[in-house]
Amino acid sequence: MSIIVKNISKTFGNFKALDAIHFQLPANNLIALLGPSGCGKTTLLRIIAGLEQADHGEVSFQNADLLAFPANKRQIGLVFQHYALFKHMTVFDNIAFGLKVKPKKYRPSHQEISKKVHELLKLIKLENLADRYPRGLSGGQCQRVALARALAIEPRLLLLDEPFGALDAKVRAEMRRWLRNLHDTLKVTSIFVTHDQEEALEVADIIIIMNQGRIEQIGTPDEVFHHPANEFVMSFLGEVNVFHGRRDENHPKLMIRPHQLKIEHAKNKSSLQARAIRVITAGPFVRVELLDENDHNSKRIQVQMTHEQYRSNPVLPNSLVYLSPKDQ
Amino acid sequence: MPMNTLASKAANAMITLVALSFIFLFLILPILVILQQGFSEGVVAWWQNISDEETLLALRLTLTVAAIAVPLNLLFGIMIAWTIAKFQFRGRELLLTLIDLPLAIPPIISGLMYVLLFGIYGWFGAFFNNYDVQIIYAVPGIILVTIFVTLPYVARELIPLLSKQGTEEELAAISLGASGLQTFWRVTLPNVKWGILHGIILCNARAMGEFGAVAVVSGHIRGETNTLPLHIEILYNEYNFVAAFAISSLFVSLATITLLLKGMSSEHHSKKH
After folding, report:
1. Domain limits for position B27
2. Which of B175, B191, B192 should we substitute to test contact with A (largest number of A Cβ atoms within 10 Å)?
3. What is the pLDDT of residues A149-196, one digit of tens each?
4. Which of A95, A212, B17, B112 is the most buried (most CB within 10 A)?
5. Same domain, B8 and B128
6. Cβ contacts of A264 within 8 Å, gap of 6 or more
7. What is the count of structural domains for chain B?
8. Are A243 and A233 in contact (CB under 8 A)?
9. Does A153 touch chain B (CB under 8 A)?
10. Which of B168, B178, B191 is nearest residue A72 as measured by Cβ atoms?
11. ipTM greater than 0.90, yes or no?
12. Which of B162, B170, B176 has the most A C-beta neighbours within 10 Å, making it the best mutation to test the interface with A?
C-alpha cells in the first residue's frame, strides 16, 4: 500500500530536469514536493500525472504500474496553479465533467451525478454558487472548485501543482488549513508541489526536498526542520546565520537559525561581539538584526526571541552585545 | 488649465467633425447613391429587377457556392488552427505564412492559377476532360477558386484565440478521464465558439462577394455560371444602371446584416476576455 517512484530521469535537450529520482512512501499521506524553481518538482508531478514522459524509470501506486496507462486512464486528480477551470461551464458542470465523460457503461445516471456534485459542493462550502461561471468567482473559490472537480472522479491519487501560488497571502493561509482539514477527512493520497517552505512545513505529513533534479532529503516536517541532512536543506527551510570558521581551521562553518541564538550583555568565552542595528518588535516574535563587530562586511546576523525574553533583556539599537548559541 | 481644456475641446470637436465628414463622404454617400439609383424608377421596377429570372439564377449560384465553400473552409480552418496553435513542429511558421497566401495574391491571379491547372490545356485539364468533367467555365471552377480565396478567414480568426487559451484546460479535461475527441468537443471548441462565428461571417461575406477570381474561371454564361457580382457587372456594361443598382442594393443590405452579426459576435468576444 504505497507509492513507489523508481529511478525516474528526464532530460530536456541538455538540461537534466530529473536525475534518478527514487522514493517509496506509504499511502494516505499528504506529501509535499518542495524545492526552488527549476528543481524538477513540477516535471516529476507531470510525469506521475501522465502529462510528461519520463526518459526511464517506474512509478507505481498500490502495486499498479501507473506509467502503463495514458493520462486519461490513470484516475489521478490534478489541480493546477491557475485553476484551469472550464470557463464556459458553470461550477456545477465543471465538477460534473469527469463523471459526464465516462464511457456509457460506467457513467452514473443524471440523478447520481447531481447528487455527487452537490455533495462535493457541500464539501467545498459553495452550495449556493453551483450556477455561477468561473469568471464570477474569487481565486480561492476557483481553487476549491478545481479541487472538487478533481475529487469527483474519486482519484486514487491527488496531485496539486502550486495550488495556492496564485492566491494572496491571507487567502493562502486559509486555504492551507482548509486543505489540511480536507485531507484529514478524505485521506486521499496527495502530492503537492510548492516552493514555499512554510506551506510545506505547515501542511504536509512528509516533505520531499528537491534541488537540481535530485532529492536532498525526505522526512516529516519535524525531521527535515530539526535534522536537516545538508546545508541546502538547512538554508532552504528557513532563515539561517552562517558563521565562517575564523582563521584557524579547527572552526568549520557554523550554521545556526535565528531562534537558536541568544543575546547577552556580558562576554563569555565562546561569544561573538556584535552591534544591534535594528529591533523589530511588531509580530509574534521580536527580531534583532546585528552586525559582527569583527567583520563589518559580513551579512547581518538575525536573532529571534519571544516578547517575554525581550522584555526581560531588552536590546537597544546601536548597543554592543554578545551572541552565543542557546543550549539545546 | 481652463484655456487648455477649452482648446482641446475645440480640437476634439474638429477631429470628430473631420472624421464624420470623411465617413459620410467615403462610406455613407456611395451607399446612398446605390439605393437612390436602385429605386430611381420606383419600388415596382426595383422589385421587377430583383425578381428577374436571370438575377434569381445568379443569386442561387452565389448561395450554392457559399454553402459549399464556407463549411469546407470552416472544417479546414478549425483543423489547421488547432494544429498550429496547440503543437510545436517543424514547418509551423511556414504553414502559418502559407495560410495567408490567398490574401496576398491578387484575386485575378488566383483565378488564372486555376485556369492553368484545370483548363483544357492545363495540367489536369486533359485528365478531367477524359471523364467529361468540365471545371473551368463551369460551376466546379467557381467553387474551387472561392474556396481558395476564402481559405484563410476561419483559421486566422482562431489561431490567436486558441494560442492564447493555452493547453491547461485541455490537460485538466484529460486528467479527468476525457478522451482526445471529448476534450476537443467539450472544452476546446466551446471556448472559441464566438471566434468561429466571426470567422464564418467574414468567410461568407468574401465567398458571396468575390469578383476577380470568379470572373476569370466563370465564363459569364448567363443563367449558368453567372454569380451575383458578375451579373451586376454585365448589367452595368449593358447600360442597365437601374437593374445593376437594384441588385447592388440587395448586396448592400446583405453586407449590412453580415456586419451587424459580426459586431454582435465581436461584442461577445470582448466581453468574454
Report:
1. 1-38
2. B175
3. 999 999 999 999 999 988 888 899 999 999 999 999 999 999 999 999
4. A95
5. no
6. A271, A313, A321, A322, A323, A324
7. 2
8. no
9. yes
10. B178
11. no
12. B176
